[in-house]
Amino acid sequence: NPAQAGFAQELARVTNAGAQLFDQSFAEFCVRDELPEFDFIGLHGIWSWISDENRALIVDFVRRKLKVGGVFYISYNTQPGWAAMVPMRDLLTEHARVLGAEGQGIVSRIDAAIDFAERLLATNAGYARVNPQVAERIKKIKEQNRNYLAHEYFNRDWDPMAFSSMADWLAPAKLGFACSAHYLDQIDAVNLTAEQQALLKDIPDAMFRQTARDFMVNQQFRRDYWVKGARLLNPLEQAEALRTLRLVLVKPRAEVALTATGSLGEANLQEAVYKPILDILSDHKVRTLGQIEQIVREQGINFVQLAQAVVVLAGAGALAGAQDEHLIGPARKQTDRLNQHLMSKSRGSNELSYLVSPVTGGGIAVPRFQQLFLLARAQGHKQPADWAQFVWQILAAQGQRIIKDGSTLERPEDNLAELTAQASDFAEKQLPLFKALQIEPHTR
């Protein structure tokens, strides 16, 4: 998609980070002879939506260009979670192809296909009786962004693949399965019953164990790490490596719920374990797992409990890894430029809802108005009332109004009052976090 590549290149120029982004097909990119060997290769939202020819090109590229010991990340739609939906997807695309007029555009054809599917299911079709979950999925599909649906369901190629098939595909690249990249997949208690856990323990083959687990949780989307030449650390080496991990809380303490959601539903977290850990990290300062361990040991929390709690909190989006200290300073020069650019764009759009932290080296969710409050501060406005006035001037100039509780606020004073309330709440809750994560650009 040249528009996406162009936008990515624009952001790379803003940061002067040296990122190289290309608008090339897999066939063009994978045969380039000047490319180095890579420590990491990542594929997100690609594999399930491309042809077998392109998959073969990618596997060959990984075989040639991933270093020994290198890590390969891949996400893909998988079976058995998609099994019931495959015929319905075929119906949707067939309707769009046969009954949709080309001149209508993809959005209109998608809407017509979804409408037809709803009418078909409403006839008490035998397929719907045997697969009652399909009607609920169609209902959810109807609520989703049409550009997303065009890629997800109406793509020319679409192949949900079993884990065993993925392993067969990656075998020529000499890749071995390492683990799921989804943190909460590591926590059996929220995903598997005791009976399921016992059955998995009786399976000697690690690869078949993954296949069986997918049936237990009805897996429909996998995010996995594979390694070229994986070697296991012994327990002592693993514990030592874990203790050096640098961690930071990336949500306001009050917003971290003591719950975790897995395949079995929502589970309550043990307050005696999680509360002391969160209290330590509530100032959003970076600490190693070893430093946290020394403090919580006094509350009777052992290392195994701590390590699992960290995985759960990371999986819930409350905790993130932090970069080494010597990397944060140089990175901030780039992140300040990028954040300034993104906040400037937020004046006219709410499409970009993330800023970047040099502390974590990744994106942090920051909604449009919060970005504008930060922009107001960067331009010298010091108080929440001033930030609200700054934002209201931007909205008013574009004829925009705030929607609150489903109703549009028409009067300027009502809009300003709502913005002032949001700015005050932001100053109390989010601003300390964003300062700690060094998301806020230096002020004038």
Note down, in words, how this protein is organized:
It is built from 20 helices and 13 strands. It has 444 residues and is an alpha+beta fold. A 4-stranded mixed β-sheet has the order 1-2-4-3. Helix 4 (86-98) packs across helix 5 and helix 18 packs across helix 19 (412-428). The two termini are 37 Å apart.
Write the layout of secondary structure elements.
Blueprint: H1 2-15, H2 26-29, E1 38-43, H3 52-65, E2 66-77, H4 86-98, H5 106-121, H6 126-130, H7 133-142, H8 146-152, H9 163-170, E3 176-180, H10 194-201, H11 206-217, E4 221-227, H12 235-243, E5 246-249, E6 259-262, E7 265-268, H13 271-281, E8 287-288, H14 289-296, H15 303-315, E9 319-321, H16 325-345, E10 354-357, E11 362-365, H17 368-378, H18 384-397, E12 403-404, E13 407-408, H19 412-428, H20 430-436
Parallel strand pairs: 1-2
Antiparallel strand pairs: 2-4, 3-4, 5-8, 5-9, 6-7, 10-11, 12-13
Helix pairs in contact: 1-16, 4-5, 5-7, 5-8, 16-17, 17-18, 18-19
